[in-house]
Specification:
Layout lengths: L1 H16 L8 E5 L5 E5 L5 E6 L4 E4 L4 E4 L4 E5 L6 E6 L7 E7 L4 E6 L3 E6 L4 E7 L10 E9 L4 E8 L7 E7 L6 E9 L6 E4 L4 E5 L3 E5 L5 E6 L9 E5 L14 E4 L6 E5 L8 E8 L2 E7 L4 E4 L7 E10 L10 E5 L3 H18 L4 H19 L3 H21 L4 H16 L4
Antiparallel strand pairs: 1-2, 1-20, 2-3, 4-5, 5-6, 6-7, 8-9, 9-10, 10-11, 12-13, 13-14, 14-15, 16-17, 17-18, 18-19, 21-22, 22-25, 23-24, 23-26, 26-27
């Protein structure tokens, strides 16, 4: 709880001194009617709109989970835009409603309208606990489950109800449930004049966010309304609801983010990427090579020379962004690239000579002389005469040096050609 409060204070402080950046907490609002999911500020301003029929929303600190009435659960990136995985767990009794993330047990909780709560392991994609809650009630008999939230401070689940079928939406009920035993720990509050739909717990303020037909309310645990706003339209009953602390969000990648490879050679390539984003600002990038961390780079880095690679070998590179709290994205862009074969490298060197001639940096006569030597090297390579190929490449380097010394070729262009030739000499075979 203290961590969240400290993060909230830090967010307010930074917002005051860095007005160009946003650090706001947010809400995710889902419903099974319109198919629109909204991410909003705590005052109801729309931050993001997605199209999906969602009755349950949960956030585990890194990823979002959406659930529909049939029990299909999609794990998504923190911005909700990209589906990471999907699985279905058929509701135990009735249609699936809201979800919550249990940070203590690292499990999802889902409530169905038959007043059954289910504990789900998102890693194994299985249900490992089912609890049937009482449906008898003196006011909203029989109860129909709608919302669920997890209070990590007290290790309690909060569950909301309407009258089964939600024939009337003028009364509501929220109770507390022990997540280990499934026993009802007590009644939090009842409502008159509005229903209690999707639930989300805000640990920083020790309060609940409660969905209704057209209004979202922030309420104390005793049932007093702290604030409210009209839910965005189009939309139906808010039966999926989640609170996300701005300080808890890891960096995210805007749509269209890329990681690209260029200057691919026998043993090296240049990697470039677009910028990630974070409420507090990205502090570093982590580059992975075949799933292993290759380099940690500054927040201002947008390129990296990956050297020391093997020829003729496929590599998978992935870039992730990290923030000041140590949270890193997990859905960064990736690229699969194969380093050149010696034959491809020779062809690239011949093309480099052609490019110099075409740009006017090298005369046609000098270009023909260099290409003749490289083509002789290619013939030797095709015959498997590696030593003869290397001799031709050494002759090519002497030619380049002569052209540089005579002023027919710039030192920088000459060095690039010699560097490529040296790479071939050091790696003549796959």
């Amino acid at each position: 709880m203290w961590r969240n409060r400290r993060a909230r204070v830090l967010a307010l402080f930074l917002s005051a001194f860095l007005p160009g950046m946003t650090f706001a907490d947010s809400l995710w609002l889902g419903n099974d009617r319109s198919g629109f999911v909204f991410r909003t500020t705590l005052r109801g301003a729309i931050l993001k709109v997605l199209f999906a029929r969602v009755t349950g929303v949960a956030f585990d600190g890194n990823a979002l989970y959406f659930s529909d009435t049939d029990g299909t659960i999609t794990k998504r990136t923190a911005d909700g835009a990209t589906i990471v995985s999907s699985f279905r767990i058929v509701p135990a009794l009735n249609i699936a409603e809201d979800m919550a993330w249990d940070s203590t047990r690292q499990r999802l909780w889902r409530i169905d309208h038959g007043s059954v709560i289910e504990r789900i392991d998102p890693v194994t994609q299985t249900r490992d606990q089912v609890v049937t809650l009482p449906t008898a009630d003196p006011v909203i008999q029989p109860r129909g489950g709608l919302g669920i939230a997890y209070d990590s401070n007290r290790d309690l689940l909060y569950v909301s109800f309407c009258k089964s079928g939600c024939a009337t939406l003028q009364k509501g009920l929220v109770i507390a449930v022990n997540p280990d035993s499934g026993a009802v720990a007590g009644e939090l509050f009842r409502t008159e004049g509005f229903a209690t739909g999707g639930l989300a717990y805000d640990s920083a303020t020790d309060s609940l966010w409660v969905g209704d037909v057209s209004v979202v309310r922030n309420m104390t645990l005793s049932g007093s309304v702290i604030s409210s706003f009209s839910r965005p339209q189009p939309g139906g009953f808010v039966d999926g609801l989640e609170f996300v602390s701005g300080a808890d969000l890891p960096p995210s990648w805007p749509a269209g983010s890329t990681l690209n490879a260029s200057n691919v050679g026998l043993t090296s390539m240049t990697l470039t990427w677009t910028a990630a984003q974070d409420d507090f600002g990205v502090t570093s990038y982590q580059l992975y090579q075949n799933g292993v961390l290759r380099a940690t780079l500054s927040a201002f880095s947008r390129s990296f020379l990956a050297s020391g690679l093997a020829p003729c070998t496929n590599y998978l590179f992935k870039i992730e962004a990290c923030d000041a709290s140590g949270q890193c994205s997990f859905d960064g862009p990736s690229v699969s690239v194969t380093t050149l074969t010696p034959s491809q490298s020779l062809l690239a060197l011949i093309q480099a000579v052609d490019d110099l001639v075409n740009s006017g940096a090298l005369s046609e006569g000098a270009g023909r002389a260099l290409k003749a030597t490289l083509e002789a090297a290619m013939r030797q390579l095709d015959r498997g005469n590696i030593e003869a190929m290397i001799q031709q490449l050494n002759a090519f380097e002497h030619q380049v040096e002569a052209f540089v010394n005579s002023g027919a070729l710039s030192a920088a262009d000459g060095q690039r050609l010699i560097g490529s030739a040296n790479e071939l000499i050091a790696n003549p075979t796959c």
